[in-house]
Write a structure and sequence with these properties.
The structure holds two protein chains of two kinds. By secondary structure, chain A is mainly beta. Chain A has three helices and 36 strands. In chain A, strands 2, 3, 4, 5, 18, 22, 25, 26, 28, 29, 30, 34 and 35 form a 13-stranded antiparallel β-sheet that branches. In chain A, strands 6, 7, 8, 9, 10, 11, 12, 13, 14, 15, 16 and 24 form a twelve-stranded antiparallel β-sheet that branches. In chain A, β31 and β32 form a beta hairpin. About 1% of the residues of chain A have low confidence. Chain B is mostly beta strands. Chain B contains ten helices and 25 strands. In chain B, the strands form two sheets. Chain B has a 22-stranded antiparallel β-sheet that branches. Classes of the chains: A mainly beta, B mainly beta.
Amino acid sequence: MKLPNFLIRYFSLFILITMLFSSCYKDLLEDFDKSVEGVYDGTWAANIVHTEVNLSDFSLTMDDESEVLIENLDNILVLTYNTTKLYSLKGEHLYYPNLETVSFSFDITGPNPVGPSKIHKANYTYTFSENIKLDMGGMIVDSVLMKSGSLVININSNLNFPYTLTLKSDYVLDENKQKLDMTQNPLSGGTSFTIDLRDKEIIMPYGQNSIPVSFDVELRPGSSAVNFPYRFDVNNSLPSCSFYWLHGQPITKEEYLSQNLMMQFIAEKSILKLKAHKAKINLEVKNNVGMPLSLKVDSLILCNDADKFYVPLINITELLTAGYPAVKGEYKTTYRSFDIENFTFDNKNTYIQFRGTGILNHNGIDGNKYFITDSSRYRVHARVEVPLKIDLHQFSYLDTIPFSMDSLNVEQLESALFRIHITNSFAFGIRSQVYFLNNTYQVVDSLFDKPLVLDKAIVDPENDYHLLQSITSSQDVTVTNKRLERITKAPYLLIKAEVNVNKDDPYMIFYYNEQKLGIKLGVKAHIKTQLKISSK
Amino acid sequence: MKKYIVIPIIIVLLTIISFENIKAQQSLAILNECIYSTNYNPGKKINYKWHATIPGISNFNIAFSENLLTYNQLITSNATSIIINPSRLVKNLKKPTRLILDLNEELIGFGFKPDDESYFSFSARLRSENYIFLPNELISMLITGNASHIGKNVESNLGIFHSTYLELGPNYQYTINNDYTIGFRPKLLLGITNIHTRASSINFLTTEEWDIYANGNMEMSTYLPVDNQFDFKQDYFINSLLHNPGFAIDLGTQINLPYNLGIALSINDLGAIFWMNEKLTNHFSFNTSDTGQWTKDGGLYFSGFEISLKGIETGEIQGFDEIFDSISVEDFLKYSYIRSESYRSPLYPKLYAELFYTLSNYRFSILSRTDFVGKHVIPSVTFACNAYFGDIVELALSYSIYNRTFNNLGFGFHFHFGPVQWYCTLDNIISPILPKTLNNLSLQTGLFLGIRPKAKKTIMSSYI
């Protein structure tokens, strides 16, 4: 059978085409043996950081427990400054137990036992009582809860046969209120007792700071010969000990107190100078000691060395009687308030000078009983309230913060555009700059050629200077590749912000919650890169 | 004679222009001598006396199409390396992108002509249809960056539609006056596997102030041979093959008009499958939620690292890593795959409209096909010229625009070797030759037995 011509032509053409284009498959197969690279060309925009600062968000704990915060009181923001604190000695340093080391002895002269006895091959039982004295640094103690200490009682004897010695005290109680009861069974000679005083409550019943104890002796000679008299020599030691609390009649304890109660405010990073038209200073005495406290204040002066501003808050020595807590662990706080005007504040140089004497239990031993714990003490500090109705003289802020942009590969960045968007609702202008620092804190670049100046917000003098309109500013900074490389390698950012105080501004600057500063810093980056995905 | 050539050319050009924004799928098999052209139009007139399939090899169809990745568009190569440049995809991503895979295998079939006007046939087929609609807006943004989308919400809708089922049904057609043919095919369906996307949305917004907000959600019903722990459940699957019934119908007609013109219309796969075996019906749910510092309103929200006065004071400034550390992926991206009640999923109807013109040994046609998948409408168009040689050969040349691809030059043939009929069509003969241009691949081929009436064998073609 002969194929039609058109079929022959068709198949010939098909084979020709197939041969011609078989090279395409060859190209494709060769591609599979090549390394693979990827090209990326995109532009991304996103904010890096944002903040919206309202002064009432402000709360800053400083060293030594001083604290700054801003509170909204009656729609006026009030800066509250808790100064550094002055502490008295703790109870454990005011009173410390001290054992009166004594030696005593008792003799067994013959069979005059207590209880049943027998002449021969019998047990002989005797009881002796003694007081162990413990001094408490001037307090006549009723009771004490010990925190630590080991009372050792050593006994030497010439007994040459076994005996039982029991140490007892109804005035030493363990945590389960069980009385002291310890027994030793030496075969002959002496022995000793070691009493762990931890968590033991000791009652001293006779106003003599002494612990009544008794020794029960049972002689068990068995078949040994008994040759009276026998002697017991006792001595004791208490190398170191401490208490949780004491209760009794203390003597008066005085302590001289002197400290400048500092009012520093991020002094290393900022300069703040202002004049408050009025301020309130609360001298606060917080007492954790369970006995009466008097403070004889000799000197209390508000000081600002920079402006030579000194305001004595008291003119003559003043005796301040403070309360005391009735329950262990509680506090009793006593205040003494002072109102001042035209208070000049400088965040590096303002403090309150305090000089005085703290007197615990001013009346001494008078039959009244008090307590003190090992950690209880009293403290003095000042709480300064400054309504932010102020004249702002200067505020500059300079801070270095870590800033890592390691995740950005500069080689992949064609360009970047930084955009800073600021909304200012404060009644003062702001001048700011952002610097990029290297590892040695040297400036390698700055974000803006000139500091970014932001005008003050518009306030309404007819309405107590409330905010009328915020001021918004947006600035774009295009960063070239080389400059971007410098920036992204910078491990630190230095932020500098300065309040632009204008003498033409209203004399009074009011601060409300509505006043805040919003900052957004974003980057629009053109990423253009070629990456090796796999290699052959 | 010239006008017979010029007019189709003009029509072709006009149609290409009008279909510039086409969002389409693959074309039909274009052979007219092939009994299986009635798969697409049950009303297309059959000129066989009888036919019978050879089980397994009579009608096999695979069609793959995607309109996002073209090798030579995405990849360039030099002597040592190949370079992938995703930005070359951006143009494609400006319009909907999708991936389509259809499989069709006739298991058994036969037909005969009870009288001069009618033809009755029966067919049992295994079909699988798959449509994946890509989130092209999101992909495009990831390639170009979000800078060009500032102030605009980039919303993408990922969609997955899949159905595999057994289709059984008779086809009956009736011809009036040799010019009007109508046909219909009621079908019983037996569902095998299914994925049906009910809702899908991925949003990415970059505000004018460069804040970034992103969220997403997706709801799908599935019937797969796994339970809600993704453990394969062979017994459940096999034992319940007959438990997912469905019903559908195909309707079609062909009308011969004066001046050798004609039209053919059909609508196929109108119906649904009821997935009744609740041991394997599951519901997949995915959404984002507020779990972390950088989440808000059910999505990711990033307006920059927050610097507080205290942070400035202490130097505790957050880093990029903290975004991801703070967002617990398990909590932020919440998904579940749980047992659900039985559900119904529609088939994917197709609407065909054909205009044809016969001239001597040639037949020219324009065929439009529109797929309806969920809320997606996918049009396509095919221009074809069939030539008939003697009484044994039909050759066809086609050009299709589908799935927004324009390089689909097709070719097909049908040979009558006595009662043995062999046919094959390729919608795209360029891709196998130039594999780097591959977007689409559609092959339909088979071998079946069929006898035409003697009166018809003497003319050049049954359709002329």
